[in-house]
Amino acid sequence: MNTELIGIAVIFLSTVLLALPLGRYLAVVYSGDRSWSDFLGPLERGLYRLGGIDARQEMTWQQHLRALLTINLLWFFWAMLVLCTQGSLPLNPDGNPSMTPDLAFNTAISFLVNCNLQHYSGETGMSYLSQTVVVMFLQFVTAATGMAACVVVFNALRERSAERLGNFYVYFVHSLTRVLLPLSLAVALVLAFQGTPMTYAGKAAVVTVQGDSVQVSRGPAAAMVAIKELGTNGGGFFGANSAHPLENPTYLTNAVENVALVLIPLAMVFALGYYLKRPKLSYMVLGVMTAGFLLLLAPTVYYEMHGNPALAHLGTNQTLGALEGKEMRFGAAASAYWGITNTVISCGSVNSMHDSHMPVSGMCELLGMMTNAFYGGVGVGFLNFFVFVVIAVFISGLMVGRTPELLGKKIEAREMKIALIVALLHPLLILAGTAMSAHLYAGHPTEYAGWLANPGFHGFSEMLYEFTSSAANNGSGFEGLGDNTPWWNLSTGVVMLLARFLPIIGPVAIAGLLARKKYIPESAGTLRLDTATFGVMVFFVIWIIAALAFFPALALGPLAEHFTLY
Amino acid sequence: MIRSFAALRMTNETMKSQSLFQPALVREAVGQAFVKLDPRTMFRNPVMFTVEIGTAVMFFVTIGLLFRPDAAQGSFGYNFTVFGVLFLTLLFANFAEAIAEARGKAQADSLRKTRQDTPANVRLDDGKMVAVSSAQLQKGQVFVVEAGEIIPTDGEIIEGLATIDESAITGESAPVIREAGGDKSSVTGGTKVLSDRIVVQVTTAPGESFLDKMIALVEGAARQKTPNEIALTILLAGFTLVFVIVCVTLQPFAAYAHTPIAVASFIALFVCLIPTTIGGLLSAIGIAGMDRALRANVITKSGKAVETAGDIDVLLLDKTGTITIGNRKATHFWPAPGVAMQAFVEQATVSSLTDETPEGKSIVELARDNKVDPAQLQSRLAGAELIKFTAETRSSGVTLAGGTRLRKGAADAMRRLAEAAGQAYPAEVAERVQTVAKNGGTPLVLSENDRVLGVVELQDIIKPGIQERFERLRAMGIKTVMVTGDNPLTAKFIAEKAGVDDFIAEAKPEDKMQYIRAEQQAGKLVAMMGDGTNDAPALAQADVGVAMNSGTQAAKEAGNMVDLDNDPTKLIEVVEIGKQLLMTRGTLTTFSIANDVAKYFAIVPALFMVAIPALGALNIMGLHSPQSAILSAVIFNALIIPALVPLALRGVAYKPVGASALLRRNLLIYGLGGMVVPFIGIKVIDLLVGLVW
């Protein structure tokens, strides 16, 4: 078998093997059982005392959401403040300027919502202070926010009726101290040893082999890159993200980063099984997610490895695949694998330019973000999946002749309403945003000429990608889009905000409402969720609701480009 | 007011044998399909309402083209055809609902026709008698009926006892006795008093009896959406909204790509994608569910009750009549040691000669087989005093003229009696009692002046085929519970033999209530059937309470269904009807949504093929032209509604194979089928339409 393919197979399998024990550990941590990390107890208790938090106080789902939204609001103001004033703040050896308000708004929201869409370039747009106390800080806490919200839903799915679902701050702090920090430390060490810089010194002056003298940007990158991947944030330290030779120096760091970003979303799925003591349920979820992932991965790897027919016509050798926009040290397969993992999971870091991927690969990456539930972001990936499960349970519950119930709780009009609002929001934000942009561009092609590097089908894909990435809180860019303009900064900022918080509020509300209901024990007539049949049902619900709605848009973008090319 | 239930039964039978589409009903439904186009009515169904808006837009576009042809919008003929097909879609959906209603109405009308005005002799407070039309009888009024007269309306006997011919309701020709007080006090309008005279109090206001409510329900006037229907409507509205977004945003997309899209294509895409199939059939499915219950001779008070029946986890069934045939029969005489068989049988017969209970009668019968002539013993009863069975003494018997006390009753009661009188309770008798009970029999102990004479063994006969029914229920995930007055040993034997999962022995009405509460506490839904007034609280507590029509008014008020056949096994049918209703909704929703895949592949290439020839590659069905593709999709979309009406009315068959197997089966048929069928259907239609466009 092809070495490149073996490479990505090894990366995927080692992720699964690592996620399994991590999932068990997560279940232990969130259940509050004893674990090796209990030595952190005093630190955590100190934090609770500092924040005036009563860790034993259990919360209703509304209190959970209030806590979540409050701390998020504070972080937003904090980020805005630092970004708008970074030019005159310390730790700015390269003398980078403060951000304009619209760019600061976009950036603050982008990191607050775990999206990490970057309309700036790290080397010139950020001070080290901003990189540390805004970017890296938010990369930790937003990942922990998603995980905590996910645990609230786990808690609500247990076999009982309950009003109170644990303490939000405890879930949040435990996610940080016992999961994200130790893992980040490990990953950062590997990166630092492989050559990723970790310094507060400014640009280094280097004389190249050719004798040119160049300025090389550096900074506290290793620490940030670790949480960038682990927290499925994706916002790079350098503008070129993980394609940058210092951010992702070797095939090994590429593999480690790629494992890191899939690790927690996968482990959360295993954690579900351990936490609810329904291991088969997590196999169902994992099966559906993996099927969706592989379905998107296979064509991407195929098309990337087979090269570009247009270039082949020009006599360029395409045996190594479509290498335009890719790093030679990773190759076509690892770049394709990275592209799909980073889009099905809302990480959105890049190690090759998606703009240069083949049209079908671009479409698969778009679909990964449009469905946004095949693994998905830390914590929130399962929340998105949960919404589809609610809809699938409703339809298939009816098909077995019972009013629908999810793990012993009846799904009624109210839950259905919330689930639909969340499911509808995604296509609404993406399609409406793209439609407005397309309308503006079509009406004023000269005025907005700077937007699109490639007009036509590809340009349409660029705009579609930008909104899809924002709505999926993914943050990767198709690039080729002139996106640091007020329209793009503000519109994607609003989309990111809505697309982050409503899909958290919705599932938590559904779970909270369900948790209160009477628990109905299983019988032979009950629809079981941990079966392959139900998995097939969820799979099709995701495809028909989430993917099919985008069929016309995809036809006008990547599909039209593909059929023109081939 | 007289309602002939027999007439209802006849209509049911004739209708069962006839096709779903009787010409008269179809004619009425077609008319109604147009009436229902009223936007105020359509508004209740968000999916079809949006289709109506789309149709209206197409109408104006078509008219506009007549005056100002516009090449971008296509020819007048094409636009007119699209409009026509959309209009048909609306009519088909309305027709589905109308035909379901018409079938219900046909039954209601046949009931109404048999109503005759019967004069009622109302007794006023001052004792005067007035003749009042039955239609004007008010709740609480009191009327008198004498032998040979027909009872004008439903009520409760407050004075007297009468034999009544209830064949109009039950089809049973043997007259029944109804009397004031107790569980046999309710009378139904339309039945005939054969002997004696009774005074009856009216229990239902005019137009408020179950039947009146049912008529209103099937006619749609009082039909409210059930919670599940509401949730499903929300889901469908959600799907509709998704496609509103898809279609609206497509306009700027197309403008960007310089591929103008005609209004007809937009609306066609929209109407094809929204779940019109289930949207059009949803209310028909609900009406048909209640209709099916009515055909099973069960009157439901609401659509929700039918829906809930599908969810039932626990079934409480009375042993007598459901699990066993009728009543227990005496099968053996077991005299106590030192008592002669002949003497024992004679005393047992004497104690039972005046006993009208089936058990008593069966003792007399068994005595005959034991060569004792009951007629000769009749003389001993001269001047005897009858002692009726009560729940406290749990025994009955006679006190003969000479003072001899003959008692028979439950073993423990008789033992207490004997021991209280200082008499020995022979060990052999105690042992016999145990053996009889263990073998599923009921031991009846006989005593003479508190001296135990022996044991009469009574046996139950389990209904043939009942085991299979319980097996089926178990496969459906339903727990069956037998309720019986028997002692635990007997109950256990019968429960095991019949295959029920649990039993309540020596059950008092409170026990049923407690059992239901406990199950409900554990989150289960419970159904039960009952007829007595003392069943009323339990019937009300149960999630589905089916009252027998022969039962008391209180029981009928408390339940949410009434079974006209008084058939205790009817609960099983009711559960299946409920499940069918839910499954029909689920499968047609799946089918409707799965159809979208093929429709996308028909319409999307058609929209862009002209301007972007490369996208012709998406035309995997090889449809003739953009116009023919769009028309074929909308025509398929319209035709599938009437094609599925029979399924909606009959319901998807329920098979108790377990939830996962059922889901797999339905996913294969309606999910996979829903994806494949439109590919074939649209292609076939395109072959025809392609001849023109």
TrEMBL record, chain A:
Listed InterPro entries: KdpA
Family affiliation: Belongs to the KdpA family.
Positions of transmembrane segments: 6-27, 67-89, 133-157, 169-193, 259-276, 283-303, 373-398, 418-442, 494-515, 536-560
NCBIfam families per record: kdpA (TIGR00680)
Name of the coding gene: kdpA
Membrane topology per record: Multi-pass membrane protein
Description of how the protein assembles with itself and partners: The system is composed of three essential subunits: KdpA, KdpB and KdpC.
Taxonomic lineage of the native organism: Bacteria, Pseudomonadati, Bacteroidota, Cytophagia, Cytophagales
Described purpose of this protein according to its UniProt entry: Part of the high-affinity ATP-driven potassium transport (or Kdp) system, which catalyzes the hydrolysis of ATP coupled with the electrogenic transport of potassium into the cytoplasm. This subunit binds the extracellular potassium ions and delivers the ions to the membrane domain of KdpB through an intramembrane tunnel.
A Pfam entry, by short name: KdpA
Compartment(s): Cell membrane
Protein's name in the database: Potassium-transporting ATPase potassium-binding subunit
Protein keywords: Cell membrane, Ion transport, Membrane, Potassium, Potassium transport, Transmembrane, Transmembrane helix, Transport
